[in-house]
Amino acid sequence: MYAIEDLQEGGLSIAVEKPGFSYGHDAVLLAGFTRVKAGGRLLDLGCGCGILSVLLERRTGAEVTAVDIRPEACELCRASAQMNGQVIRVLEADLRELKLGAGEPPYAAVVCNPPYFSEGTASPDAARRLCTHQEAATISDVAACSRRMLKNGGRLFLCYPAQGLAACMAALVNEGLQPKRMQPVAAGDKPGPPGGRPPYLILLEARKGGGEGLVWEETIRL
Predict the structure, then answer these.
(1) 125-182: pLDDT as tens digits
(2) What is the dihedral of CA 80, 83, 85, 91, to 10 degrees?
(3) I need a surface site. Which of 65, 93, 149, 159 has the fewest CB within 10 A?
(4) 3-class secondary structure for 65-126?
(5) Which residues lie below 8 Å from residue 173, measured CB to CB, with a gap of 6+?
(6) Among 116, 7, 10, which residue's Cα sits nearest to residue 52?
(7) How far apart are CA 172 and CA 72, in angstroms?
(8) The 3-state secondary structure of 110-173, one letter per residue
(9) Which CATH architecture has domain 2-221?
(10) Is the whole model's pTM more than 0.85, yes or no?
């Protein structure tokens, strides 16, 4: 069962599970951080309801493929694309096994809002648990899949908890994905400690085969 929500952007709507987990503000922030050229091939890993695919297809004109392991999530993404008159290719697949098909061109960009947590109390809701806890995919799995699917020079865009940044960057570098651009997200409108809170989320862009050199962008304060 799903409900329709108005995204209040260009007439776009999104189908979300009710009851169930839909999407958070981190996905919306990631959509604003992502850069891809019109007509470029964009892969949305772990698409969930398809919020990133829907927003980025409309904003950028990219050729979007959305992938999720859950058939229910794939149906939500298809429903949203149909409602919005969008062409979004949706694949039900495990990103740990995903590879380019014979003769299939690699992607210019990959976007992913990955599962964050490896410890702590997991949600009793199966959908929320799969989206938030690293049961079906770790950050290393996301990095490895991105390397397989990206062209040389292609870019991965993701968000990750600030406290896990070291592990995230290590996983990316291990797969030849060099961090190139980073933007912290913090709560409150005051500048950093001691006057304000430190970042809790990081938006990160990494380039396949890229060289050293990381650009820090101004902190987003919510």
Answers:
(1) 444 434 443 456 999 999 999 999 999 999 999 999 999 999 999 999 999 999 999 9
(2) 30
(3) 93
(4) EEEECCHHHHHHHHHHHHHHCCCEEEEECCCCCCCCCCCCCCEEEEEECCCCECCCCCCCCH
(5) 179
(6) 7
(7) 29
(8) EEECCCCECCCCCCCCHHHHHHHECCCCCHHHHHHHHHHHEEEEEEEEEEEEHHHHHHHHHHHH
(9) 3-Layer(aba) Sandwich (3.40)
(10) yes
Q: Are strands 88-92 and 63-68 parallel, antiparallel or unpaired?
A: parallel
Both tokens of residue 42? 């964009």
54: three-class secondary structure by DSSP: helix
Position of tokens 């992913």? Answer: 112
Find where tokens 């039900």 sit.
Answer: 92
